[in-house]
């Protein structure tokens, strides 16, 4: 059972039965990025304690330079917020 937390892949196959929150929550996020859910219920000390043993890899985002970035409209700066120019 693989989980992704902050672009790090963890194999939780052996840990799933020991998880204090139960197996179901880990199985629900199997093979998915569960970073947001993880940080809602855990602190860094949990990852420091269990992470190194469970870590099996990293997510690598591959950018194809042949594909240009999307053509976004110009940004209008107003106060401290950003808004897109609808007339563009």
Automatic annotation (TrEMBL):
InterPro entries: Cyt_B5-like_heme/steroid-bd, Cyt_B5-like_heme/steroid_sf, Cyt_B5_heme-BS. The keyword Mitochondrion does not apply. Pfam families: Cyt-b5. Keywords: Heme, Iron, Metal-binding. The keyword Iron applies. One of its GO terms (molecular function) is metal ion binding. Residues 1-60 form the Cytochrome b5 heme-binding domain. It comes from the Eukaryota. Belongs to the cytochrome b5 family. This is Cytochrome b5 heme-binding domain-containing protein. It comes from Exophiala aquamarina CBS 119918.
């Amino acid at each position: 059972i693989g989980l992704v937390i902050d672009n790090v892949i963890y194999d939780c196959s052996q840990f799933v039965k020991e998880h204090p929150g139960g197996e179901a929550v880990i199985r629900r996020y199997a093979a998915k990025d569960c970073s947001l859910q993880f940080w809602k219920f855990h602190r860094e000390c949990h990852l420091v304690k269990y992470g190194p043993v469970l870590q099996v890899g990293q997510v690598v985002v591959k950018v194809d330079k042949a594909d240009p970035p999307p053509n976004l409209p110009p940004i209008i700066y107003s106060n401290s917020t950003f808004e897109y120019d609808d007339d563009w």
